[in-house]
Amino acid sequence: MQQTHTKSALLGVLCLTLFMGYVRAHGPDDEAETATEHESRIRIGLSISPVPLNLVKKNRALVGLGSYIVNAQGGCNDCHTNPPFAEGGDPFLGQPKHINQAGYLGGGVAFGPFVSRNLTPNRLGLPAGLTYERFAETMRTGRDLKNIPPAVPSEDVNLLQVMPWPVYGEMNDRDMRAVYEYLRAIPCVGSATRCTP
User: Fold this and answer.
1) Per-residue DSSP letters for 94-108?
2) Which phi and psi angles does 142 have, rounded to 5°?
């Protein structure tokens, strides 16, 4: 019993120490992103997109920020590109990283009975075939609006499995819109009927 209390006390001290270090390193002035930091994310996002971007009638800043979120933070390529890396470009094998551009975010990765979805814009320019409102609803609630089997029902609602929507759903509205705008700007992957207007 004494050992359990000692471990709990040590864990509490460790958590408090980490929290206090975080507070010192991230004071109240750090809560708001500066304009320079925001522009830096946009610039980096535009430079790291592994595919050419169509910026016609799109907000450059949102597309760049979306690319930063998708490619530098979200790890979307790992699950939505099959295979994620081009031959000879797998960093997990010690090779210089080279994303599979031909299949970029085109889906098709199997996770048991579940298969990742194609996130690229369809012939109407809708990422994953969803309007922004439906995309945001899916990302925030995990509701599978397409009801593609296999599904795990929860109160008569099919919920996406494997997809980390409980995490991505916490994004603020600007970041969610940025991800959507980035996905609108990437090339379509799929059949001619899916991609050709």
Assistant:
1) TSPP-B-STTTT---
2) 80, 5
Q: Comparing C-alpha atoms, which of 97, 71, 75, 72 is closest to residue 86? A: 97
- Residue 197 domain-assigned? no
Is 140 exposed, middle or buried (CB count within 10 Å of its CB: 0-12, 13-18, 19+)?
middle
Question: Can you tell me the distance from the alpha carbon of 51 to that of 104, in angstroms, rounded to the nearest whole number?
Answer: 8
Question: Residue 120: which domain range?
Answer: 35-190
Q: How far is CA 67 from CA 37, 42, 178, in A?
A: 15, 8, 8
In a domain, 179, yes or no: yes
For residue 126 the two structure tokens come to 């809708």
Neighbours of 25 (CB within 10 A): 8
pLDDT per residue of the chain (197 residues) written in tens, 0 to 9: 444 444 444 334 333 333 444 344 444 445 567 989 999 999 999 999 999 999 999 999 999 999 999 999 999 999 999 999 999 999 999 999 999 999 999 999 999 998 999 999 999 999 999 999 999 999 999 998 887 777 666 666 788 889 999 999 999 999 999 999 999 999 999 999 999 98
Q: Is residue 130 part of a domain?
A: yes
pTM (two decimals): 0.81
Cα first-last separation, the chain: 69
What is the number of structural domains in the chain?
Answer: 1
**What are the two backbone dihedrals, phi and then psi, of residue 194, each rounded to the nearest 5 degrees?**
-75, -35
